[in-house]
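S1.2 Input.
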Amino acid sequence: MTYRLSVPVLAAALALSVSCDGGSDPEVDSGPGTPDAGDEDRDSGPPPEVCQADPGPGPEPPDPGDAAPPPELDCGTPEFPDGTPLWRYPYLQSVTRTSARIAWTSTAGGEGVLRWAPGPDGPWTEVSATAESFPTSRTGQAEDYVAFDATVEGLEANSAYCYEIVEDGTVLARNLRFDTAWEGTDRPVRILALGDSGDSSDAQFAVRDAFMEQDYDVFLHLGDMAYNDGRFDEFEPHFFGAYRDTLHRIPVFPTMGNHEFITNSGQPYLDVYYLFEQAWQERDQERYYSFDYGNIHFTSLDSNEGTLIPIYLDTNGRNDNDMFDWLIDDIGGSDADWKIVFMHHPFYSSSERGVRWSNVDRFRSLLEEAGVDLILVGHDHHYERTVPLRGRCTSPEPDGITEIIAGGGGRSLRTIEDTTRWYSATSFNTDYSFLRLDVHGCRLHGQAFDTASNVVDDFVLNGCD
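S1.3 Output.
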């Protein structure tokens, strides 16, 4: 299917095609006077008396019953022996109910092997790793390195396994653990979500130290993890170095921010991650994808101008199988209780950016059509949760979709212009923050925390129709 634009939206898209979101001022992203895609009519919209009334509380979700615990397995204390060529610590990628992908890098470039077992006493199985060279001419870093990744398949759902990585007989890391995904509603899904973190600031580390006090199953990074330009030498300290003690245990599922997009349309991002290749066009692989955990269908989308504007400009329908066509098929085809979309740019914000009305009409409307329950975004450097919204209006659950900005991951905080905007349920920008979601059955319990682990927002959503 193909979506065509009206003349006014086409004109707006043409005007926006000359802008570069975040490229001109890496310190502040794009600010006042520098539009993002969809910003051009941010002050328009229906008058308040038409459809902006308080939507009121939605129906209480049914009691999900007792929560099944995660699997128990002690693989020992993680060890990373000194004196090895290990460069980038192991990190979990593309975990499913029956498989897991583990990646790492080394400066030696020998034969990489992943060893895994159902417990610390074995039996151990070896999987040869795929190797790809990254010379300094490609990365701009101080040393050449080799990227390894290995996929373990044929696993049991909702199970834990021990693993270690070896190169030419030398153990680079041992006593590590990964868990597979699961299906059903017996066990809650524990989600960590944050964005706009990646500059190795004290604030980023304060957020990290606070969220590491809790346990999670899934780490959603909402973009801008490698300031300023998404280069290889920025990914190493700002993301892989900052979160190395988390990434070998909790799988990270990222979405591309505008700062990652700056360098070669995000090529370093595509090179350092090993994401699901599900797009219908080869050029779009790993820019958007989806996966399932428990009773949740997660979809990561690319909200950068470089992806959206060509779709908006395709008035004659010549470019089939783009991201919009794919998402309708992907999300609309899922029968999961929860459909959660995460991407970088918000539709509604109380920062100076306001509402991106064109994106609300042309992009968010597709998410509403597909049956999305929750939208998670970053880009604006604060925390904010909207009331349930649909079609430019407030709308009670389950018809309305809640949108949450979790962009307080460590970059300088964004100014909130108006804390009383009709679409905003709550906002917070006096400290950096992260978001935790616990999804059990039809019930989603969300909490936002500051760097002192104080709860700054506490809410419950109902995912059942």
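S1.4 Remarks. The first helix runs from residue 7 to 16.
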